[in-house]
Amino acid sequence: RRSPFSSRVTPCTAKRPWCRLTSWAALSWPVPSLWPSPCKFPPAHRGIGLCAGPARLCRGPGPCPRPHRASCVAESKTSPSVFPLSLRSRDEAGHVVIACLVQGFFPPEPVNVTWSPGKEGASVRNFPPVKATAGSLYTMSSQLTLPADQCPAGSSLQCHVQHVSDPSKPVSVPCEDLCPPHCQCPSCDQPHLSLHPPALEDLLVTSNGSLTCTLSGLKDPRGASFSWTPSGGKDAVQKAPKRDACGCYSVSSVLPGCAAPWNSGVTFSCTATHPESKSPITGNISKLLGNTFRPQVHLLPPPSEELALNELVSLTCLVRGFSPKDVLVRWLQGTQELPPEKYTTWKSLKEPGRGSPTFAVTSVLRVDAEAWKQGDKFSCVVGHETLGPKNFTEKTIDRLAGKPTHVNVSVVVAEVDGVCY
């Protein structure tokens, strides 16, 4: 195949100019329909080194013998405008993102964006230039992601833009880790205390529930100290400070091994002191004791409409009539526990009716229709404090057996060498 774009014989796919230009120009080609297949070329293109005069005659042997004329119009260089961007977000790993917007430049390349000073754990992502809807100018952006402690509030980094029209354009981008637009950030000069109960899974599985006391709203996390009453058989562990989306710091103290006294209703007190607080702050927490009800577990097979599709089918576990409202739901396929990504469990909701309040929760497991049709067993495992020493009950269903079977199950409990008294 021959190319009509060169005075010499070259492949149609060759990415090379048919003549030379030392500055940028706009190259307008004839209507594409005039070019017989397979010799095709965009109706317009912009670049450097594509043409050398106001007009050129295109000739080529083979399937593209017709001469055509291409017009070249030179365009001047345009320097970019650079704007700092402080994104109001932070990811789960504690990284912050800042960026700079590079706008209104020509030609689109070469252009390069770098950041200084270099930061440990930082990564740069430069997005390619995009032409504006109207006109011939281009826009691009550069995004810098780095750990929050490498970009504290009040500091800044430099965004350097290198373009053919200008050697370098440094712009200062402030490190503002601000609150998302949908929330209102509290002041960082008003420390406040919050206490959190043990995680339900820790209470039911390991009998080693931990209480957490968190001092928030700090400008500087240094100097925080905590004391617990009762102190317990284990020492409290003070965690590393964390910086929230509003730029404030928090420090937490964790008291382990408190499952037994917590379940019996013991009240725990946490007192925190910090240089930013005029006086110590104390908070109390205890388990709410009241009427308790064992959960009823109902395991439902897939609906016939799903089975007819022969794709994924839904197993539904309905847990209802229990109190208190905290419940744990897990799924098994055979004896293998399934990861949480395989099923959806909704939060507990209060059931309608008078008298003592009870709660209900629904969990749906999606499985391959083939696994269900070949007779695999699936179990819904429910954990609740009213289920006795074992804490768990299990209901199993499969296509061959039909009716679900119900058994109590035991869980391996970790030894705990200290409890709180």
Automatic annotation (TrEMBL):
Keywords: Disulfide bond, Glycoprotein, Immunoglobulin domain. CDD domains: IgC1_CH2_IgA, IgC1_CH3_IgAGD_CH4_IgAEM. The keyword Disulfide bond applies. Residues 80-172, 191-286, 295-398 form the Ig-like domain. The keyword Glycoprotein applies. This is Ig-like domain-containing protein. It comes from Neovison vison.
